[in-house]
Amino acid sequence: MSERARDLTVLAVLSLVLFGAALGARDLWNPNEPIYGEAVREMAERGSWLVPYVNGMVFGEKPILYYWMALAASKVSGGVSELPLRVPVALAGIAIVLGTYALVFPYAGRRRALASAFVGATVYGVWWNARFIQMDIFVAATTLGVIAAVSRAVDHGASRARSWALAGAFAGIGFLAKGPVAWICPALVLCSPARRTRETLEAIKPALGKACSIEFVPELYAASDRHLLEQLHAVPDSIGAVMLIGHNPGLQRLARLLASSGTDLAKLEQKFPTAALAALTVQSDGWAGLRPGAAELVDYVVPRDLD
């Protein structure tokens, strides 16, 4: 066994202990665990591997990957319970630890790769999300996989065809875990010209891509939800995805005005802190026809989720 393979094996075992200890010891906690657990229970009861149900009704809030993994774990363990329901997120946590090692190793060597993997495993956000049922940890793991695969081709001379194929596979897994938000990048950013919003834009600009257009709109400063909606009405229909970078309370009120469904609606209504991100998909014939209640909240991320 090579030194790198031995390191990965040891990290996998240690991560399994860290994330798996007493994994099924507590009951399912609100807001997400009970509803996902019920969906898995009803799928197992129906013998369905394609369509999640909750209280006898189709539950289409999230894609299918988590349910497949939880059903498989439940089959192995002999039934649906807290432990097999949390096994998928624990596996995603282990993938993050191994992916961190794989990403750092070619750049900084074995010692720093091990140190980085240790830090990644023990950061509270990773540790907790590897023990609590939610989908964000799958996106984190697959995004890390995409970055590691692309870096092999860009910086380390690996086969481009193989690296890009691997990156595409990780992106596809992220899509199965979280849905379109795993792939969506805005074609247009409308940003308030205030200093803090400009700083936010600068921080995320590397992830936007060269094809993304950026416009600074003075009317976004301290705009109400209705004024923000008017800005969206003016967006050309050739633009498929828009990002607004602005201020509260207008942004939170706009998201609440537009979103009529989504598992994170309660969290959104409770608080929209600085640097929060609400991702919505809209059902409309065009931006000019966008109306209240015409969107689904597909993701809601606050800074503490990234700690």
Condensed summary:
With 307 residues, this protein is mainly alpha-helical.
Structural summary, described in words:
The chain has 307 residues and is mostly helical. The protein has 2 domains: 178 residues, no CATH class; 119 residues, Phosphoglycerate mutase-like (Rossmann fold). Helix content is 55%, strand content 10%. It has 12 helices and 8 strands. α1 runs parallel beside α5, α3 crosses α4 and α4 runs antiparallel to α5. The protein starts with a helix and ends in a 6-residue tail after the last strand. The model has no long low-confidence stretch (mean pLDDT 90).
Features:
Rossmann fold; 2 domains; mainly alpha; three-stranded mixed β-sheet; single chain; 55% helix; three-stranded parallel β-sheet; 307 residues
Q: What strand line-up does the widest sheet have?
A: 4-3-5
Query: Main beta sheet, described?
Result: 3 strands, parallel
Shape: globular
Q: Could you say which structural class the secondary elements and strand pairing correspond to?
A: mainly alpha
- Oligomer state equals single chain
Strand content: 5-15%
The number of domains is: 2
**SSE run:** HHEEHHHHHHEHEHEHEHEE
For the secondary structure, the number of strands is 8
Based on CA atoms alone, the radius of gyration comes out at: 21 Å
Structure annotation, total helices: 12
Alpha-carbon distance between the termini? 35 Å
Low-confidence stretches: none
Helix content: 55-70%
Give the rounded overall mean pLDDT.
90
